[in-house]
Amino acid sequence: xxxxxxxxxxxxxxxxxxxxxxxxxxxxxxxxxxxxxxxxxxxxxxxxxxxxxxxxxxxxxxxxxxxxxxxxxxxxxxxxxxxxxxxxxxxxxxxxxxxxxxxxxxxxxxxxxxxxxxxxxxxxxxxxxxxxxxxxxxxxxxxxxxxxxxxxxxxxxxxxxxxxxxxxxxxxxxxxxxxxxxxxxxxxxxxxxxxxxxxxxxxxxxxxxxxxxxxxxxxxxxxxxxxxxxxxxxxxxxxxxxxxxxxxxxxxxxxxxxxxxxxxxxxxxxxxxxxxxxxxxxxxxxxxxxxxxxxxxxxxxxxxxxxxxxxxxxxxxxxxxxxxxxxxxxxxxxxxxxxxxxxxxxxxxxxxxxxxxxxxxxxxxxxxxxxxxxxx
Length: 376
Fold this sequence. Notes:
- By secondary structure, this protein is an alpha/beta fold.
- It has two domains: 2-186 and 359-375, Rossmann fold (3-Layer(aba) Sandwich), CATH 3.40.50.2000; 204-353, 3-Layer(aba) Sandwich (Rossmann fold), CATH 3.40.50.
- It contains 13 helices and 16 strands.
- The strands form three sheets. It has an eight-stranded mixed beta sheet, sandwiched between helices. Strands 13-12-11-14-15-16 form a six-stranded parallel beta sheet, with helices on both faces.
- β12, α7 (244-253) and β13 (260-262) form a beta-alpha-beta unit.
- α1 crosses α13 (360-375), α2 packs across α3 and α6 packs parallel to α7 (244-253).
- The chain starts with a strand and ends with a helix.
């Protein structure tokens, strides 16, 4: 089933762009809107949302046209892949939209291959929007997957990568450096209007935001916390997942269960209060493509202890200014937590200022540059 969500515009930009992505992600809305100011944008969702996500589907603030293909989904936990099976519906929507440029958000779903095939037959340029890195990919070195990646990348005319690590990934599989525009993964920070601290601040307030699943490194994080029980701290966890009961038991066994506040999943528009009530964000991911919670934490003035396996840490953390880049293992995080607890209080305004160069308008301009390269 193909559904259309239309938005009335006051002006018609010059070039038509179709952007294909797995599903609705609220953090992308400001970037979509900024891009829509520079072109006539249609966002094509291969599915309403990804199976493992709990985001609210709210399209009211999207200024671009949005088409939803109601395709079936397959989720592969070991690869952290959501495979959307849309094919014919992608041909149909592109036949209607008739874009001058097609942007695809990956290579793993048949819908992306269908869009690429549709565009190549009509001599329409294709831009690949990529965030995967050599650190995050679980298929690097696999002969079959390496062949598939090289094949798909060879069919693309230009690339928008969020982060230098993603650019290196693209080059490994045959993309030319002069066709890659490097950006920064952008989160919806419109709800993060202030970085002022709120709530009690007697002890250092630690914060974890994310899924409670193995690749997020939460088990290792709790091992680190068991080693710093001599320090004054509290921990808020905004998120849920399969490991919650195991984490509760570990906290009980190590005597710090009474220091933890479990908030469960928090919708994006309600996160500001959570961030502003904390001092230090803990992001111990063992495998992470980017880590948008790091963007949000810095915008909220938090000092960040970020895993060196996450591209966001490598791109956004300025050691000693807004955080530390940490090896995601218990001893390293123990040392980092000890240092951070003793280092505070933090200059939250200065930390927020380190994110001033990351804007949806800036990233939209970079995407337009990638479109220009695709046409050149």
